[in-house]
Fold this protein.
Amino acid sequence: MIQLLLAVIYLSFISLGLPDSLLGAAWPSMYGGLGVPVSCAGIISIIISGGTIVSSLQSDRLTRRFGTGRVTAVSVAMTAAALFGFSVSGRFWMLCLWAVPYGLGAGSVDAALNNYVALHYASRHMSWLHCMWGVGASLGPYIIGRVLSGGGHWSGGYRTVAVLQIALTAILLLSLPLWRGPAGGGEGGGETARPLSLREILSIPKARASMATFFAYCALESTASLWSSSYLTLCRGVPAETAAGYAGLFFIGITAGRALSGFLTYKLNDRQMVRLGQGIIALGVIAAALPLGAPAALAGLLLIGLGCAPIYPSVIHATPDHFGAARSQAVIGVEMASAYVGTCLMPPLFGLAAGRGAAALFPVYLLALLAVMVLAHERLLHGGGEEKRLCLL
């Protein structure tokens, strides 16, 4: 039963990744038909991220009341409905409406699953499970690219992913007894008797440094996801239909990197994994910035994805060790909210620059976010006190 529950969690992580890369891959083909400027992708991104912020902040309460299994099933069902709504939307305002359940479906399940895995599984499993997120995120651009290259409409890609999410929802509903049994018991991991308020969480030492780390990391990842296709098209001369598929290189890098990271955790601790990823991101940004044409830019996207691979799972996995199992669900909730604030604010900010003809600043923008992430993570590690201990799995 334990192995079966782990398989369900793997599928859940695939479902988390499937919707995340769709907008960035499809947008170069969407905005013209919708009659809006390229920067309007940022508006949809803001709405989606706003929903995830709200649901992330409620994850502690929802998970305590309903359990991880039910939260996961309902969240995936909401995402499936939103994706189908996207596929039948022919106006920009309709996309904005469907973006609300799109975002609300992501936050609670993200925090709940990450906390469950951080409490009950070794670091290598966190990396491999997030590799499954990368599988889903890589499939998104691939599906969009195949539909567009076959002469189809972008809505067909969204409809395909919606069907996949509906199938995953059915599997999750059938798996609910597993979460109530011995394999799924003890979700709290020694949690406190009541949910912590936001003020109480912010008063925890180093909580703000952890939040800043997630803000910068997810701002970088989401900016790369949303604007890599447009960067390739506007600045490297890659056709839109080809760029949609090539944008998947970023997620392929994340997926392959997380598969490898699971093995590297036998030798490296969470802190070392994060620093290794940050160095690889720097190399990828430099490659994308060099005036060497499309091949160098594509190699840069792959390297950026490889560098992103170990960071998120390693910082998440260290959260119970930094803050204790009793507070980990609450802290991970605000970490996720901070991550989505970064996702909400920073890609649209770059969209304003891209809309004014400054898309070539894409590598510079990523480098600035990387610098913020490095500073915040080092503060998290060296903030003092008994919480310096890191997970060494």
Q: What stands out?
A: Residues 182-192, 384-393 have pLDDT under 50 and may be disordered. The CA atoms of residues 213 and 230 lie 26 Å apart. The radius of gyration is 20 Å. The longest helix spans residues 325-355.
